[in-house]
Design goal:
single chain; alpha/beta; TIM Barrel; eight-stranded parallel barrel; three-stranded antiparallel beta sheet; 13 strands
Length: 343
């Protein structure tokens, strides 16, 4: 109710300024993680027990400032980051654009974050609290050895994370997506898996939607071979479907409603390519319970959103989870796991 009153004013603000205000508001909320995992939407993925399958995607809470507040909004898990070894300012502003007519967002943030040292100090303070918090790790833009950056981040963050998410799919760090190449990806994952070995947390891999069928097959083979905890399908797209907004030609990654069809297609391809051997996290264009349910039926064990909250407000998590319960009962499933891949 309050958000619906504030929404017109928030949409008049620069998108990055509005985002900063939303983080400030969340910092004022009471901590909200829960260790209850026996509800109707509870599910297990990569050895982790989730209270529900809906998570906040990386990019919203880049520095790990409000994961517990996000859990308190009703998300089953929160993924913070991307965090890099050294602080970096990211790309010049403006770099975040709302495409309200399209219910979409374009960003070219460029892994702006306060760096690993600050994140470790902050996340160590919440370590041991209930709730699943994943940490999305990246490499610095000017790094001479990006694989070494990922290994460093895995070693630092694994003791503080429920899972690590390896992000090689942002379009806003030049050359980063080249790490999705089969040889480079194998070397990268070997380094990450070795670096996090002591903590033994699951490793998820976040991939781009802009992949060819041969890329999907290669990544799927690697994911199965390395026994990854999950594949996150997918990040933002550099493609441009028809858009109405005046910001349509801005450079960067497109997310929100226009990404839905492409992200769903890639999810189905990864489900087929992995044969269900690696859990999938469906991301991209999810704004309703029906969207989330379609992704689950297509093969996602978990789903995430981000852009939709800019338009629907902080109540979106509870709205979607209530809807998922209704849809699960309607279609005769006793658990989320039963519905995964059932389309």
């Amino acid at each position: 109710m309050i958000y619906s009153l504030l929404r017109p004013a928030l949409l008049l603000l620069d998108a990055e300024t509005a985002h900063g205000l939303s983080l400030a508001a969340l910092k004022a909320l009471p901590l909200g993680g829960t260790d209850r995992t026996d509800g109707p939407l509870a599910c297990e993925v990569a050895g982790l027990r989730f209270p529900n399958p809906l998570g906040m995607a990386a990019g919203f809470d880049k520095d790990g400032e409000v994961p517990d507040a996000l859990l308190g909004l009703g998300f089953g898990f929160a993924e913070v980051g991307s965090i890099t070894p050294l602080p970096q300012a990211g790309n010049p502003r403006p770099r975040l654009f709302r495409l309200a007519e399209d219910e979409a967002v374009i960003n070219r943030m460029g892994f702006n974050n306060g760096g690993a040292e600050a994140a470790v100090a902050r996340l160590a303070q919440r370590h041991g609290r209930p709730g699943i918090v994943g940490i999305n790790i990246g490499a610095n833009k000017d790094s001479a050895d990006r694989i070494a950056d990922y290994a460093t981040m895995a070693r630092l963050m694994a003791p503080l994370a429920s899972y690590l998410a390896v992000n090689v799919s942002s379009p806003n760090t030049p050359g980063l997506r080249a790490l999705q190449d089969e040889g480079a990806l194998t070397a990268l994952l070997d380094a990450v898996l070795e670096a996090r070995a002591a903590a033994k947390v699951p490793v998820f891999l976040k991939v781009a939607p802009d992949l060819e069928p041969a890329d999907v097959e290669a990544i799927a083979r690697i994911a199965v071979d390395k026994a990854l905890g999950a594949l996150i399908v997918s990040n933002t797209t550099i493609s441009r479907p028809p858009l109405r907004s005046r910001h349509a030609e801005e450079g960067g990654g497109l997310s929100g409603a226009p990404l839905k069809a492409l992200a769903l297609e890639r999810l189905r391809q990864f489900r087929a390519a992995t044969g269900g051997q690696v859990p999938l996290v469906g991301v991209g264009g999810i704004a309703t319970a029906e969207d989330a349910w379609q992704r689950i039926r297509a093969g996602a064990s978990l789903v995430q959103l981000y852009s939709a909250m800019a338009y629907a407000g902080p109540g979106i998590a509870r709205t979607i989870t209530r809807g998922l319960e209704r849809l699960m009962r309607r279609d005769g499933f006793a658990t989320i796991a039963e519905a995964v891949g059932s389309e």
